[in-house]
Amino acid sequence: QVQLVESGGGLAQPGGSLRLSCTTSGFTLSNYYMSWARQAPGKGFEWVSGILRDGSRTDYKDSVKGRFTISRDNAKGTLYLQINSLKPEDTARYYCARASDPPAAWRGDYDYWGQGTQVTVSS
């Protein structure tokens, strides 16, 4: 069955960095546009970044451009999110998610997502 397992979250100080990973199984990663989305306390699910099947294009929410870097290793079945210059407003549970194409991902139309990994930014 399809599984997505996120890891790498934790407590970090403002200005710090974290690298999130998403290990996938049960499907061929290279066949899908993949995204990272997040949900902050009391807020809705928010798409933050996506990457084309072959990694040739990456997309970012405006508020994270220049700080977040999404990447993928299709051979390893793994998706990554490097987060630099962390801000308190980045505090959220981060999910990797699968969608059929970029527009589906941008409107939150995912068919699978993981259990998430918590990122807390605080001094």
Descriptive account of the structure:
- The chain has 123 residues and is mostly beta strands.
- Helix content is 4%, strand content 49%.
- It is built from one helix and eleven strands.
- Strands 2, 4, 5, 6, 9, 10 and 11 form a seven-stranded mixed sheet that branches.
- A hairpin with a 6-residue loop joins strand 5 (45-51) and strand 6.
- The termini are far apart.
- The model has no long low-confidence stretch (mean pLDDT 96).
pLDDT averaged residue by residue: 96
Secondary-structure element pattern, one letter each: EEEEEEEEEHEE
Number of helices: 1
How many β-strand runs?
11
Strand content: over 45%
Radius of gyration: 13 Å
> Distance between termini?
40 Å
SS class = mainly beta
State the low-pLDDT regions, or none.
Answer: none
Share of helix, binned: under 10%
Biggest sheet: strands, sense, closure?
7 strands, mixed
Shape: globular
List the helices and strands and how they pair.
Layout (H helix, E strand, L loop, with lengths): L2 E5 L2 E3 L5 E8 L7 E7 L5 E7 L6 E3 L7 E6 L4 E6 L8 E8 L2 H5 L5 E2 L3 E5 L2
Features:
seven-stranded mixed beta sheet; 1 helix; 4% helix
Précis, in short:
By secondary structure, this protein is mostly beta strands. The protein has one helix at about 100-105, and strands at about 5, 10, 20-25, 35-40, 45-50, 60, 70-75, 80-85, 90-100, 110-115, 115-120.
